[in-house]
Amino acid sequence: MIDYFNISKQDKNIKKKILKDISKVISNNNFILGKPVNDFEKKFSNFCNVKYAVSCANGTDALFLALKSLNLPKNSEVILPAMTWISTILSVINNNLKPVLVDIEKGTPLISIKNIKKKINSHTKVILPVHLYGSVVDVRGIKKIIKNKNIFIIDDAAQAHGARNLDNKKVGSLSDISCFSFYPGKNLGCYGDGGIITTNNKTICNKIRKLRNLGSEKKHVHDEIGINSRLDTIQATILLNKINKLNFFNSKRYKIAKYYNNNINNIKITKIQYSKKSIYHQYVIMLKNRNLLIRKFKKNKIPFGIHYPKPLHKLECFKKLFKGKKFPNSEELANSCISLPIDPNLNKNKIYKIVKILNSF
Ligand SMILES: Cc1ncc(COP(=O)(O)O)c(C=O)c1O
User: Which of 305, 302, 270, 274 is nearest to 288 (CA)?
Assistant: First the structure.
């Protein structure tokens, strides 16, 4: 059987240790903001080469908290890609800010930087790029176009744990604030929901630390209007174990992606362009007759994903908001994308079988 992604198999060797550590949390009665939460925040900030990391309940909240910490005037504009997971835009709307969509660069999963430039005006307060599929946005390029303007960059790094930019700098250290998700299927995931925010800005870090804990750092002192969005101690314990295997698994994904890159040669398939040091959260190809391949995959029991079938402006809840707007590259990717299995434990035979099917339909 070919797995799309098998967490239980990936964690087989560390399961015993994880269960032992969870048992310790239970014995210590230390479920909320216990020591492992602090330990994990330190470990994650070291991993990203960034000064501060504040954990929270999930990646959606990480984005919400990051934007909230900036205290922006109502209806300030936030620029984000039209092709991303819904959480990116929800963080904008739920902060009473105005989302401004920008198309992705053709043939890539990433926001077009030249189109960002066209959308910047006096109301623009934040650029929110997404390192989609683990491919890294040229944040330095965005910094160049906003130079001397009072605009923040918050990057959505939910799919990019351990990825690096062309200067070899880790995602998590590239922008003013970075937001990660630890949803189970992410390159680093826990056994439930989890998220984290990284920054080099101490003021922002302290503010988010309060906001995620009902506006409080000291018991019964609430000097911000916050939310309840804490990473469970048990999840932090799991992440402390799993982060040790992240680089190893990322390098395995990289090898699988390289094999796909070098061996898929069906002219019906368009390979999308990834950044050099992508961590391949998803390996996505494009093809016009997607249903034909889906039928073949189903027949041969090859699992697949679609990330995502609709860009943001086509989602039911946003149809009115973005009526008449067109983002052709995002629409093309949504209409033609298929994600191939990229479980780090896929062996050669299985990858060979997948490629054979791809090249022969
Ligand atoms: C690009 C992107 N942003 C945000 C999120 C939200 O993360 P979560 O599911 O942890 O809320 C996800 C993951 O689901 C994601 O893929």
Answer: 270
Mean pLDDT of the chain: 97
Are the CB atoms for 165 and 30 separated by under 8 Å? no
Nearest-atom number in ligand 1 for the CA of 195 is: 10
pTM flag (> 0.90): yes
Dihedrals φ, ψ of 265, to 5°?
-135, 25
Helix, strand and coil in the chain, % to nearest 5? 40, 15, 40
For ligand 1, mutation pick of 130, 159, 232, 282 (most atoms within 8 Å of CB)? 159
Burial of 323 (0-12, 13-18, 19+ CB in 10 A): exposed
Which residue has a Cα nearest atom 12 of ligand 1? 158
Quote the ligand 1 centre to 357 CA distance (angstroms): 31
Residue 75, pLDDT > 90, answer no
In the chain, the domains with their CATH numbers are: 7-244 (3.40.640.10), 246-359 (3.90.1150.10)
Query: How far apart, in Å, are the Cα atoms of 237 and each of 32, 75, 242?
Result: 12, 39, 9
pLDDT value at 325 more than 90? yes
Local structure of residue 346 (DSSP, 8 states): -
Please say if the pLDDT value at position 92 is more than 90: yes
Sheet holding 77-81, edge to edge: 52-56, 195-199, 177-181, 152-156, 124-127, 77-81, 98-102
Taking the centre of ligand 1 as the mean of its atom positions, its distance from the CA of residue 158, in whole angstroms, is 5
Question: Is ligand 1 within 6 A of the CB of residue 331?
Answer: no
* Helices of type H across 175-217: 202-211
Q: Report whether pLDDT(148) > 90.
A: no
Token pair, residue 54, equals: 């504040």
Look up residue 144 and give its two tokens: 């160049």
